[in-house]
Write a structure and sequence with these properties.
847 residues, alpha/beta, Alkaline Phosphatase, subunit A, 2 domains, eight-stranded mixed beta sheet, two-stranded antiparallel sheet, 61% helix, transferase, Alkaline_phosphatase_core_sf
Length: 847
């Protein structure tokens, strides 16, 4: 019992330590809540008085901002975009329309991007986690300035805006961004308001945020035929709004600025949140801004420049905490004097933030700012005020703004080193306890073949010091898996050769060799199911082929085979007296899963069945699942009374059944096949290891298989590859706890299943309760060493690399993945320890 308590101590302290490290590593920035006023717009440049009201005044009467969620750059620039959005592309050719390429910093999710556009500040990585529960923005922002200066704002679209700005809008109607299977109504609910607002003249700013494109990306990816039709729908809406703008201009209501932009892009797999080019590059189309067409490549700006630029266009004070620069490409028709004044005001405002840095006056950016102001003064005092000299001043201001912005962004992202070091100390502490309790007693008994796996743990941990190895981690696990199979094949072949010399060749050895060859062949196919990682994720894969409209028959067969295999495996592994009940229950669950996918139009529907947006099917699934749980509880009570030694075995068996059922419900249709294949492969491997008498490394091999299948599923270390659609299966309202649980189950399905299967096979191998408890505790310790030691090493790596170029785009997401992985497995292990304790109590009570 003491050993169990000591082990539970390591679980709890390990989880607490990694949570403490995350809290210290990810900076939470507390913004200055000062609100800019009209008095912040300068009346002097140094000691020279200027006519502020003449130099800084509104350029337009109305602004319409149309945000198309996940509108990535190539959706407007490549051949698909040109074909799907012909009207918009035709408009871009006109001199009064600007096409800019906006660069976005990760995290590339909606809430942080809205913050960047409206405040001019760079969101922190914590905003990625907070995206599911947006709090109102209390710092200065463009909407607050607009409302303060008597602009009436109306909004229709993603209700994230309403959470961030709950009191800003005169009229509004929010649509939820979290039902990713809704492609149509979510946008129709925005468009239906446009005609009514066109007949109203009581607003000056309209914001529309369309979600359908993002939803399609999450479910079917950016290359789906649905993307093209959605882009065409957006094109028609743009044409409709532009037509109304022309009418307004003819009737003297203008000038009007119409801005179309994406909040973030979309990865080739359909998700977003990471730092790939497709996620961090979006178009900004400004209709009503005179642009120079003398360039061939699009002008580039930062997304956070929008706050300062819109402030200048509307003649508003720039938000107090803004880091962005005014985009002069949208102000092409302004006189040089007004451009220079806008830049001076912008630079002065950013310099106010810059002065909060320690030793700011020793920074090169500070001197650049001073030099730019001096050039501006010289230009003002000169007789001719030449354009050529004026553009030198513009270049000086731009350079100073960019330098200050870069340093400001770098300095707001500060870690709490003391917390990080404390967490690392405790991680080392629990790692030492685990190593001392488990590995040292076993090391002397390890064979050469088994030592390879210990080296594998160390090699994997060290490899995480390279950003490329983090991005392509799946290659490491694929290499380990193939290497293990090849070594096993060599070991088996050697045995066959030795036996053949003695004229004693066993058929079992040949069978094992064939099984290993089948496993190698299966790996080659399964790794092609989903392209993952960063370098090759754009390559065609089986999933992409199956999700095409013309492959609907193939994906349907794929799903039927997967579900049939799951039903068959459940049938043959259950006790004969219960098989009939289990069969009917599993068929019912499988039918619900099949019908759930027909609602997304990914597989062939059943005739005469009317789809229900997967709500009804999922509800029936959970009712059947509840019946299964009650039935399983009844069986466990019988086992506890009649055959107490099998209580642990039956409990784990039911846990595996439940986990597979829920995972099957949440998986994408093309990933369903992974569940029965993983069950079969782990069965085969455990049999091979038992025959070769190398069961000591059973837990490690099963853990490796769990990781391999984790990557087969299409997961990676990019937050963009999280299958968001899995979180909303069957939901009718936004329920963050359930969504989070769904996402965890779907993401970590394979590792948890591998762990449970290992423990189940252990319970089959040991009849003695005392021996079984010792083996399970030993396996749990080894598993925790396998997880905790690399995480501990990674905390040292990420601390050393905290100023690395890819710290937020590569290393930080990996830390989040590993931390959640560890937390999930700790919960599962604690659950198993609880079941073991129940087995112990049953043994004591029923004697």
């Amino acid at each position: 019992m003491y050993k169990n308590i000591r082990f539970i101590y390591t679980l709890i302290i390990g989880t607490f330590s990694i949570a403490l490290f995350i809290y210290g590593f990810f900076p939470i920035v507390h913004y200055d809540n000062t609100i800019a006023s009209i008095n912040d717009i300068p009346q002097f440049i140094d000691n020279v008085r200027v006519e502020r009201d003449a130099l800084y005044k509104p350029l337009v009467n109305k602004v319409i901002i149309m945000v198309i969620d996940a509108f990535r750059w190539d959706f407007i620039s490549d051949s698909v975009g040109k074909a799907a959005m012909p009207i918009t592309n035709k408009l871009i050719e006109n001199p009064f329309v600007c096409l800019l390429q906006a660069k976005i910093e990760p995290p590339t999710v909606t809430m942080p991007r809205i913050k960047a556009m409206t405040t001019g500040r760079v969101p922190t990585f914590v905003d990625m986690v907070l995206n599911l529960g947006s709090e109102p923005i209390v710092s200065d922002n463009i909407l607050l300035q607009a409302k303060t200066h008597n602009h009436d704002i109306i909004f229709y679209g993603d209700d994230t805006w309403l959470k961030l700005f709950p009191t800003m809008f005169k009229r509004y109607d929010g649509t939820t961004s979290f039902f990713v299977t809704d492609f149509t109504e979510v946008d129709n609910n925005v468009t239906r308001h446009i005609d009514n607002e066109f007949h109203n003249n009581d607003w000056s700013i309209m914001i529309l945020h369309y979600l359908g494109l993002d939803h399609i990306g999450h479910v079917t990816g950016p290359f789906s035929s649905l993307i093209k039709s959605k882009l065409t729908e957006m094109d028609n809406i743009i044409a409709k709004i532009y037509s109304k703008i022309l009418h307004w201009n003819e009737n003297g209501i203008g000038p009007i600025l119409f801005v179309i932009c994406g909040d973030h892009g979309m990865k080739d797999s359909g998700g977003h949140g990471g730092a790939t080019l497709q996620e961090t590059t979006v178009p900004i189309i400004a209709i009503g801004a005179n642009c120079s067409k003398s360039y061939t490549l699009p002008k580039k700006i930062a997304q956070l420049d929008m706050a300062a630029t819109l402030s200048v266009i509307l003649g508003l004070p720039i938000p107090y905490s803004n880091f962005g620069s005014v985009a002069l490409d949208l102000l092409n028709n302004l006189p040089i004097s007004r451009k220079l004044f806008a830049l001076y005001y912008n630079a002065k405002q950013v310099h106010t933030q810059f002065k909060k840095l320690t030793d700011y006056n020793f920074q090169y950016a500070h001197h650049k700012y001073i030099d730019a102001v001096k050039l501006h003064l010289a230009w003002l005092k000169s007789v001719n005020n030449s354009y050529e000299t004026g553009y030198d001043v513009i270049a000086a201001y731009r350079s100073a703004l960019n330098e200050m912005k870069e340093l400001l962004v770098k300095n707001i992202l500060k870690n709490d080193t003391h917390l990080m070091i404390t967490a690392m100390f405790f991680l080392c502490h629990v790692s030492w306890i685990l190593l001392h309790d488990q590995y040292y007693p076993l090391l002397k008994n390890f064979k050469t073949f088994e030592w390879i796996f210990l080296y594998g743990i160390l090699i994997h941990a060290i490899s995480l010091g390279s950003s490329s190895y983090v991005e392509e981690e799946h290659q490491t696990w694929y290499f380990f898996w193939v290497s293990f199979l090849v070594l096993l094949l060599c070991k088996n072949s050697k045995t066959i050769i030795m036996q053949s010399l003695k004229i004693r060749v066993h058929s079992t050895q040949f069978r094992i060799s064939i099984e290993i060859l089948l496993l190698l062949t299966g790996h080659r196919i399964l790794r092609m199911l989903n392209s993952t990682g960063n370098k090759y994720n754009h390559l065609p894969d089986i999933a992409g082929h199956l999700m095409k409209e013309e492959s609907k028959v193939n994906i349907t067969i794929f799903v039927i085979i997967a579900l049939a295999l799951l039903v068959w495996i459940g049938f043959i592994h259950d006790k004969s007296i219960y098989r009939q009940y289990t069969l009917f229950l599993n068929i019912g669950l499988s039918l619900c899963i099949y019908l759930r996918h027909t609602n997304n139009q990914t597989i062939i529907p059943i005739s005469l069945y009317h789809p229900s947006k997967d709500v009804k099917e999922v509800l029936i699934f959970w009712n059947l699942f509840t019946i299964f749980c009650i039935f399983s509880a009844y069986r466990l009570i019988l086992v506890a009374k009649r055959n107490k030694t099998n209580f642990l075995n039956y409990t784990i068996f039911f846990c595996i059944q439940a986990w597979v059922m829920v995972s099957a419900l949440l998986h994408q249709p093309y990933n369903l096949i992974l569940l029965p294949i993983q069950l079969i492969i782990i069965c085969m491997i455990n049999s091979i290891l038992k025959y070769n008498n190398i069961e000591k490394i059973n837990i490690l091999i099963n853990a490796w298989i769990g990781n391999v299948f984790y990557f087969y599923q299409g997961n990676s270390n990019s937050l963009a590859d999280i299958d968001i659609a899995a979180g909303y299966v069957g939901l009718q309202s936004y329920r963050p706890i359930i969504i989070g649980m769904y996402l965890i189950v779907n993401t970590y399905s394979a590792p948890v299943l591998a762990y449970l299967l290992n423990m189940y096979h252990r319970t089959l191998s040991y009849k003695s309760s005392h021996s079984l408890h010792y083996v399970l505790l030993s396996d749990n310790r080894i598993y925790m060493i396998w997880k905790l030691v690399p995480v501990t090493i990674y905390t040292f790596i990420i601390t050393i690399q905290k100023h690395h170029l890819f710290i937020w785009s590569v290393f930080a997401p990996k830390l989040l993945y590993e931390s959640m992985y560890l937390a999930v497995m700790n919960c599962i292990i604690l659950l198993l320890e609880t079941i073991i304790l129940m087995q112990y109590i049953i043994n004591k009570c029923i004697k």
